[in-house]
Amino acid sequence: MQTIDVKQLAAEQSRNEIDVIDVRMPTEFREIHAECAHNVPLDSLDPNAVMASRNGSADQPLYVICRSGNRSEQACKKFMDAGFKNVVNVEGGTTAWDKAGLPVVRGKKAFPLMQQVQLTAGFLTLLGVVLAYFVHPYFAGLSAFVGAGLMFAGATGACPMASGLAKMPWNQCDGGGSCSA
């Protein structure tokens, strides 16, 4: 997989028009993103649709960025699995871009999704225990269900609770699910 650091990417941008997609969630993108990036969330990424929308520049490199480089690496693999080889992962992601002093767009702060998952899981676990103690012992099943979900997320890297919370209205940008620049 091809990679590029943020300073090399900025130099390339100064010489040529480049295409950069940010694969983070819309709320993360809204909070801060590289000025040159547009948002295509990883969970709804369709490599064929992205390449088709590039208006004849599909043979030019497509640069993929996220917060730190992990999700963009996953996105690059999706593109390569779909047969597109000219995709480049931006090392260090938006965090490195911002630390390098490169131009960013800052917007409304968001409550991080993983904190939302932790609060929700903790609340549901506590609720299950309280209801089991005061109402009926079967409510302990709620705590067990949440625990099993957390184990599933840890083992597979897929978190159904995070996916559900990501679709909640407070995790969407005004005017729909995308915050395209």
From TrEMBL:
Extract the Gene3D superfamilies matched here: 6.10.140.1340, Rhodanese-like domain
What's in the keyword line of the UniProt record? Membrane, Transmembrane, Transmembrane helix
Question: Which PROSITE patterns does the UniProt record give?
Answer: RHODANESE_3
Q: Where are the transmembrane segments?
A: 117-136, 142-162
InterPro entries given in the database record:
Rhodanese-like_dom (IPR001763), Rhodanese-like_dom_sf (IPR036873), Thiosulfate_ST/Rhodanese-like (IPR052367), YgaP-like_TM (IPR021309)
| Origin superkingdom | Bacteria
Q: Which residues form the Rhodanese domain?
A: 14-106
Q: What is the name attached to this protein's record?
A: Inner membrane protein YgaP
**Gene giving rise to this polypeptide:** ygaP
